[in-house]
């Protein structure tokens, strides 16, 4: 959500790429809860950062532990050049959701999930101090075309919504939930590590928010995704018309049309999102699910394979994979 002066379009910027590098420095670090910290980034160049809100993705490029940023490629084809570099020379890259943008103050907020020194992003966020440098690959407001990077695009007739994810999806889901119109009914389900990670969301009266901690007073230890999976199954049964597939004339359950292809989440990214043109609410139902890829895969199988939800009525996004070292 943008706060303050909007960026001014530059009539001479016809060839500005959709995404580019913004060089920023840490201005503030605010601990939100046991598992979350908010880092406020600042830099004069952020006056051109395009604030498109909702689940807008950005890339954060972290300093290389040995050489910082001197070899990071900044050309328009930076990603291809970055991929072509020897792994030991690459700056660590991770994908996050852009938080509040304050153009007048030249600030951008990004929320991090803290899980110790188990990855470059969490390690950096645990020790970030004012003045520390960072490179943000984000949308440029001067670009005249479609930039992409957002997946929340429900059809106009979607009035029963399901938003669910683990801690990595909290910033995106919060932004979406707080933007929902008053006429829709939505169930928002968020699984987080600690009972103190839950926080109030500024949502319309028709939006029900459920926080599911994996640990805390009165909460027995739960594995990642256990509570989320159970809650999503229960909510989907309520929200999908009837909660069951229609039965044929002889009482046998009808099979959903089409074949649900398997996705090997250990070898490929699970990212199945209907584009704005093909998204279609199923009798008013639309869902957006994100988080650990193995959990999202099982929920995909349940919604599409068991409940018969049309694949055009739900977005599935595997943000990360349990056991993989290239996250966080």
Report what the structure shows:
16% of the residues lie in helices and 27% in strands. It is α/β, with parallel strands linked by helices. Residues 19-146 form the FAD-binding FR-type domain.
Short description:
With 328 residues, the protein is an alpha/beta fold. Helix content is 16%, strand content 27%. Pfam families: FAD_binding_9, SIP.
Distance between the termini: 24 Å
Coarse structural class: alpha/beta
Please count the helical segments. Answer: 5
What is the strand content? Answer: 25-35%
* Largest sheet geometry: 8 strands, mixed
In round numbers, the mean pLDDT is: 88
Strand order of the largest sheet: 1-6-7-3-2-8-4-5
What order do the helices and strands follow? Answer: EEEEHEEEHEEHEEHEEHE
Rg on CA atoms, Å: 21 Å
DSSP helix fraction: 10-25%
Q: Could you tell me the number of beta strands?
A: 14
Which blocks of ≥5 consecutive residues have pLDDT under 50? 242-258
| Global morphology | globular
Q: Any chance you could write out the topology, listing elements then pairs?
A:
Elements lengths: L1 E2 L15 E13 L4 E7 L14 E5 L16 H7 L8 E5 L3 E2 L4 E7 L6 H8 L5 E7 L20 E6 L4 H8 L7 E10 L12 E9 L10 H14 L31 E2 L12 E8 H14 L7 E7 L8
Parallel strand pairs: 1-6, 9-10, 9-13, 10-11, 13-14
Antiparallel strand pairs: 2-3, 2-8, 3-7, 4-5, 4-8, 6-7, 12-14
Which terms would index this structure?
328 residues, alpha/beta, eight-stranded mixed sheet, six-stranded mixed sheet, 5 helices, 14 strands, 16% helix, globular, Riboflavin_synthase-like_b-brl, FNR_nucleotide-bd, oxidoreductase activity
């Amino acid at each position: 959500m943008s706060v303050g002066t909007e960026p001014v379009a530059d009539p001479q910027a016809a060839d500005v790429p959709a995404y580019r590098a913004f060089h920023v420095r840490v201005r503030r670090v605010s601990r939100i809860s046991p598992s979350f910290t908010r880092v406020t980034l600042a830099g004069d160049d952020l006056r051109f950062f395009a604030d498109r809100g909702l689940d807008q993705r950005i890339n954060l490029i972290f300093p290389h532990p040995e050489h910082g940023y001197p070899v990071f490629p900044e050309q328009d084809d930076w990603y291809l050049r970055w991929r072509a570099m020897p792994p030991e020379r690459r700056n660590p890259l991770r994908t996050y959701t852009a938080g509040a943008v304050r153009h007048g103050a030249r600030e951008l907020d990004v929320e991090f999930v803290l899980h110790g020194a188990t990855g470059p992003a969490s390690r950096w966020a645990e020790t970030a101090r004012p003045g520390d440098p960072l490179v943000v690959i984000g949308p440029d407001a001067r670009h005249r075309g479609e930039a992409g990077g957002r997946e929340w695009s429900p059809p106009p007739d979607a009035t029963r919504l399901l938003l669910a994810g683990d801690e990595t999806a909290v910033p995106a889901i919060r932004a979406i939930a707080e933007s929902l119109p008053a006429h829709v009914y939505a169930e928002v389900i968020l699984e987080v590590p600690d009972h103190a990670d839950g926080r109030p969301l500024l949502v319309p009266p028709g939006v029900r928010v459920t926080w599911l901690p994996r640990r805390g007073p009165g909460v027995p230890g739960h594995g990642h995704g256990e509570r989320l999976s159970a809650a999503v199954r229960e909510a989907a049964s309520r929200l999908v018309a009837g909660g069951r597939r229609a039965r044929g004339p002889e009482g046998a359950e009808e099979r959903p049309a089409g074949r649900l292809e398997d996705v090997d989440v250990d070898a490929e990214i699970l990212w199945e999102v209907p584009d704005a043109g093909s998204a279609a609410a199923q009798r008013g139902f639309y869902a957006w699910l994100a988080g650990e890829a193995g959990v999202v895969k099982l929920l995909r199988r349940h919604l599409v394979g068991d409940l018969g939800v049309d694949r055009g009525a739900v977005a599935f996004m595997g943000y990360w994979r349990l056991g993989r070292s290239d996250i966080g």
